[in-house]
């Protein structure tokens, strides 16, 4: 979904807005993946805990075994659904990631999110600055040609 445009044909305000849009989109993508990975991590821990409770209930002969087994199946389905969503979002095979690879990706996502937050702040400021300049100069941005003046010179 890349926009095909020539940066040379854009005035500074338009270019700044395009860059702001790009950083917002990428921030959203990274943020979504980060959140899904967080949920998967929490659900994996919950699944491990339920597995422990299932074994304990089985050994003790207590009546929680069926409930824990049912909960474990529900957690497994939810994890599968989230992993499917991650697969749709990224190019890598999430299911075959090692814990180390998962931690590296999680760290990478955190860094990218922070970088895009900074970029969004910067480009927001730049857009505001350029908008103020446009208002001060009577609506004409610096570096743009006034078609009326061009016609007047030709006559």
Helix proportion:
over 70%
Mean pLDDT: 82
Strand content: under 5%
Helix vs. strand class: mainly alpha
- H/I helix tally: 4
The tally of structural domains comes to 1
Q: State the major sheet.
A: none
Estimate the global geometry from the Cα principal axes. rod-shaped
Low-confidence stretches: 146-155
Q: How many angstroms does the end-to-end distance come to? A: 45 Å
Radius of gyration: 26 Å
- Tell me which oligomeric state these chains represent: single chain
Mind explaining what this structure looks like?
The longest helix is centred in the first third of the chain and has 49 residues, at 12-60. The chain starts with 11 loop residues before the first helix and ends with a helix. α1 runs antiparallel to α2 (65-89). The chain has helices spanning 12-60, 65-89, 99-136, 147-154. By secondary structure, the chain is mostly helical. The protein has one domain.
What is this structure's SSE topology?
Layout: H1 12-60, H2 65-89, H3 99-136, H4 147-154
Helix pairs in contact: 1-2, 1-3
């Amino acid at each position: 979904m890349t926009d095909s445009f020539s940066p040379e044909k854009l005035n500074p305000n338009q270019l700044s807005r395009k860059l702001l849009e790009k950083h917002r989109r990428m921030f959203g993508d990274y943020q979504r993946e980060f959140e899904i990975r967080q949920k998967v991590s929490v659900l994996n821990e919950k699944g491990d805990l339920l597995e422990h409770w299932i074994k304990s209930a089985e050994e003790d002969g207590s009546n929680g075994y069926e409930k824990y087994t049912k909960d474990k199946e529900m957690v497994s389905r939810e994890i599968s659904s989230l992993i499917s969503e991650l697969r749709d979002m990224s190019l890598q095979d999430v299911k075959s990631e090692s814990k180390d690879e998962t931690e590296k990706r999680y760290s990478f996502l955190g860094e990218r999110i922070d970088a895009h937050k900074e970029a969004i702040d910067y480009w927001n400021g730049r857009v505001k600055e350029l908008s103020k300049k446009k208002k001060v100069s009577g609506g004409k941005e610096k570096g743009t040609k006034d078609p009326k003046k061009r016609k007047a010179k030709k006559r």
